Amino acid sequence: MKLLARSTRSHLLLATVTLLIAIPVLYLSVQSIVREDVDESLLVHKQELMIRMRKDSSVSPLSIYGFDGISPINGVTAKDKDQFYTTILYDSISNENIPYRVLKSQLSLHGKRYQVQFKRSLIDGEDLIENIIMVIIIILALIVSGMIIINRLSSRRLWTPFYTTIGELRRYEIEKNEPIPFPSTKIDEFNDLHASLQSLVARSQQTFQSQKAFTENASHEIQTPLAIFQGKLELLMQTTPLTPEQAILISDLADASQRMNHLNKNLLLLTRIENQQFYEKQPLSITAILGRLVELYQPQADQKHITTHFHLQHDVTIQADPTLIDILFSNLLSNAIRHNHDNGSIEILLQGTNSILVRNTGRATALNSDKFFARFQKDSSDLNSLGLGLAICRTICEVNGYRLQYEFREGLHSFQVTF
Amino acid sequence: MKILIIEDEPELSRNMFSYLKGESYTCETASDYKTAIVKTESFDYDCILLDISLPDGNGLNVLRELKASKKTDGVIIISAKNSIDDRIVGLNLGADDYLPKPFHLSELSARIAAVIRRRRFQGQSLITIEETLIDTAAKTVIVNRKNVDLTRKEYDLLIYLATNKNRVVSKNAIAEHLSDDNVDLFDNFDFIYTHIKNLKRKLGQAGAMDRIRSVYGMGYKFEI
Fold this sequence. Notes:
The complex is a heterodimer of chains A (419) and B (224).
Chain A: H1 3-55, E1 69-73, E2 83-91, E3 96-109, E4 112-121, H2 123-171, H3 188-238, H4 244-274, E5 282-285, H5 286-303, E6 307-311, E7 317-320, H6 322-338, E8 345-351, E9 355-360, H7 369-372, H8 389-400, E10 403-409, E11 412-418
Parallel strand pairs in A: 6-8
Antiparallel strand pairs in A: 1-4, 2-3, 3-4, 5-7, 8-9, 9-11, 10-11
Chain B: E1 2-6, H1 10-21, E2 26-30, H2 33-42, E3 47-51, E4 53-54, E5 57-58, H3 59-68, E6 74-79, H4 84-92, E7 97-100, H5 105-121, E8 126-129, E9 132-135, E10 140-143, E11 146-148, H6 152-163, E12 168-170, H7 171-178, H8 190-205, E13 212-215, E14 219-222
Parallel strand pairs in B: 1-2, 1-3, 3-6, 6-7
Antiparallel strand pairs in B: 4-5, 8-9, 9-10, 10-11, 12-14, 13-14
Helix pairs in contact in B: 1-5, 2-3, 5-6, 6-8
């Protein structure tokens, strides 16, 4: 749940509860006020009648217009007490039921007692209550919604630096080795947050850089002893006499040193690509590059009797460092050959306008794509594979902003590079 | 032919020295910048092997000095850095070749031979091995006055073995030599075997003696 939604939700809840309680309370209190008012006016009415009857003894309650009900009470002395009640009567003119407030009272005239009913329609009062409540609800609603809106707006403004910070963090790439441009705010908490983040970022950047530097330095330092070792082996090869047994041992050593050498070269290459040391961008024709590589790898493919289909409907031109693009596609191609079976096939196709697909037969199950793009994750069945090829491909794509995707479909492993 | 090895790492220097001595080159060594400057000023060399990172100076300055004094010694830069910048700067300064460490001694020897050929004979060099004649300018091979039709790789292989004659050239060195830059064909050595077989067959058909010999599966040797 979003922060803003959260704070708005509690405001809304409060407003709803308040309204739910306030409306009946309001209704009841206004209603009782209206009733009191009506009752008072009925009493006044009664007083008026009594005054008139006292002044003019000829006035008979029966002859006075406007009294809604009067009837003689015979003999029985009922309590001389006013009684109020509400009733609903049918009004034949407006053809509806109308609530009335009634005052039942007793009067004596000429020694005779009468029961008198005074009544008054409550319909105006009801309308009044409704209107009052309506107006109040509208005002309340306006106030509540206004408050919510203002609160939301101000919260949003308050939290803006926070959202900017999140955005910056999301965009952050440790490879770029730049500090994050956090916005400066007047709020201490945000400044604290930024300061802590900045120091966290600085520390991880430092670790990252020193790790990269370590890889590069280590690879450099290893080169010299490797070169000495390899040279000594070559000199050893020239010595005589040499028994076949010795020759095999030397040969094995030479292979091992070659592997070390190759591994070291690739590690160094990887760190160089990551350090953006290849920046000689120039327009390149993918058809030309692929054509050359396919030709170069043809002997290897022929050994496994692999057929290669290479056809691009039109050329793709990109701006990139030629060395990197060479490495990218030669790694993909050599993988397609290495992990292929005899009499297999390789297809190199153009997908859409700017995407190259290298598809090959091979193992019948999909590869774990999370694993093989990482370093030193290799197919253990092949000793010559170093486990760096695809990591290099991925890094090349990353620094150039290309997309590299793996897919296994219908028994074919395909790697797609989208420029 | 005189070669100067400018290299601060003594074992590497000794490796190159030992290998090249056997190739009938006269070798001298310099392990620091000062010695290198003194030697290059005092003598002429057919080829100078120049390490860029020297303890007391940049090897590229030796190259600058050489060019400033209009010396014509061939120069091959050997560098552990293998950085593109060094390569470009070096070649722009007039180095003949650039060889990143670690390298095979047979590769070094082949490069030296190529540099000397280019310098000495202004690109019109012929390598003659008994009945076989290799024209390195035209990249053709002639046996008994007949042209032998070799593929590019077979030709490269022949030159490589011939310039390392009577030496065992390891399979790894051949594989690396025949591979393009940045492209590894080290997967297996079958393709070397195929190239060797084809090369031997073509030379044999042309009437040349079979001089390429496999040495216990370790590598190949061009014997004279």
